[in-house]
Amino acid sequence: MAHTNQSVVSEFVLLGLSNSWELQLFFFAIFSLVYVTSVLGNIMIIVIISSDSHLNSPMYFLLSNLSFIDICQSNFATPKMLADFFVEHKTISFEGCMAQIFLLHSFVGSEMMLLVAMAYDRFIAICRPLHYSTIMNRRLCIIFVFISWAVGILHSVSHLAFTVDLPFCGPNEVDSFFCDLPLVIELACMDTYEMEIMTLTNSGLISLGCFLALIISYTIILITVHRRSSSGSSKALSTLTAHITVVILFFGPCIYFYIWPFSRLSVDKFLSVFYTVCTPLLNPIIYSLRNEDVKSAMRKLRNRHVNSWKN
């Protein structure tokens, strides 16, 4: 059932978010702002962390890698969506569609694993503080980043290996602004029930597994913090709140899509927008606004540039 033999679809038609020209202009203005802010915000976090020696710790090393993934996620579909607002017939090639599916699941899978690594970092820092520097060394952090990317890519390849060879022989309209895997599978000229179950199992296992690991980790951490009463615990609680907020906002739409992946409602399209366009903005906003160390490093970097301009 090879793609080269049976598939006659060379491109897919993306129906986008709306047919209204006025709404498309409105969406363009809003999402352009979100996109630029997201990319610049995450670049700013990477620059701040790499330029400040006080942020040379495992938590910030993992945070800078999270920002890098968010930059990648911002660019897999959003630039095309923004360009398509000015195109009446929105299309994407078969190869481009498969590339979007691969990139999305690679970045999402990697981010899930990296969030688990960040939770483990906070668990060691708060529950085993005396052993923190010994356990959370740079070598382990690099291993965590490597594993997160490896799991994300393997997760994506496992989807793509079956999707590429599906027979697409006619229907080619995808009711979204990018190639969403469940919507693409539904266009295949065959009974896709088994494929749907495989997709649900594959994606569901990694998302629910990571989410449960995060819930357990942060529950133990919060109990530990609650038993202490000090300024250090207050700072730890502030950091944890930022982590937990990102986890909830990231995994909420993700789990929703994997629980009901092939039953689409009109609100799903806008949840997809939040998940692909707005989620990468969470990292710079939440961590920058809630983290005193990052804000302090940001002020120092700004003052350094102001002084250099004066001189």
TrEMBL record:
Matching InterPro entries: GPCR_Rhodpsn, GPCR_Rhodpsn_7TM, Olfact_rcpt, Olfactory_Receptors
Keyword presence, Membrane: yes
A Pfam family matched in the record: 7tm_4
Subcellular localization(s) per the UniProt record: Cell membrane
Keywords from the named record: Cell membrane, Disulfide bond, G-protein coupled receptor, Membrane, Olfaction, Receptor, Sensory transduction, Transducer, Transmembrane, Transmembrane helix
Transmembrane segments: 25-48, 98-120, 140-162, 205-225, 237-259, 271-289
Gene Ontology molecular function: any one: olfactory receptor activity
Record-level GO cellular component terms: plasma membrane
Domain G-protein coupled receptors family 1 profile, chain residue ranges per copy: 41-287
Matches recorded under Gene3D superfamilies: Rhodopsin 7-helix transmembrane proteins
Main location: membrane
Membrane topology: Multi-pass membrane protein
Family: Belongs to the G-protein coupled receptor 1 family.
Role of this protein: Putative odorant or sperm cell receptor.
Name of the protein this chain belongs to: Olfactory receptor
Organism annotation: Panthera tigris altaica (Siberian tiger)
Lineage, top ranks: Eukaryota, Metazoa, Chordata, Craniata, Vertebrata
